[in-house]
Design brief:
166 residues; alpha/beta; four-stranded mixed β-sheet; 3 helices; globular; DUF7529
Length: 166
């Protein structure tokens, strides 16, 4: 299957197109985390092994991220030591029919940020988009493989998370 990295979205292999974009999102997350650290904040980056998008008729709706233990355990400590993350900033790019985003959840009083990358296809995940529009929020769940605990973060204003024109 021919793939031309100079023309993302035009190859015969959609997975080949997605990988450079995902890598860019992860790089953007690292740069954003560095900016928080430069300001004296504690910044937790989550590098999910899987991202699942769910809507309706399931226990947890939203985006579910599978976090490695070495990132999840410190995140639990940060989550438990704060009074919550009251602000969410979404850095989004719509490319090739997929929405890629870095979400920064902030607790200003604790000078702590949690950064998560996420992606979804509005076309393939139309029930998710409808649910977000209906509920007016996005939930991002972070969990380890053994599901010993699930941490839920909420984006209270989903406009920055929705695709352009929604």
């Amino acid at each position: 299957m021919p793939t031309d990295p100079e023309t993302p979205g035009e190859s015969d292999n959609p997975a080949a197109d997605a990988m450079p974009r995902w890598e860019q999102v992860v790089e953007d997350m690292a740069a954003t985390a560095t900016a928080y650290r430069d300001r004296g904040w504690d910044a937790h980056e989550i590098h999910p092994g899987d991202v699942a998008i769910t809507a309706d008729d399931v226990e947890r709706t939203g985006a579910e991220l599978l976090a490695p233990d070495n990132e999840f355990d410190p995140l639990v400590d940060a989550f438990d030591s704060t009074a919550g993350f009251e602000r969410a900033e979404v850095f989004r790019a719509d490319t090739g029919g997929t929405v890629y985003a870095v979400v920064a959840f902030e607790n200003e009083a604790a000078a702590t940020a949690v950064l998560t990358p996420v992606y979804y296809s509005p076309e393939k995940h139309d029930e998710f988009v409808e649910m977000v529009e209906r509920e007016g929020e996005v939930r991002i769940h972070v969990r380890p493989l053994d599901e010993r605990r699930v941490l839920t973060f909420t984006i209270g204003d989903p406009d920055g998370f929705l695709p352009d024109g929604e």
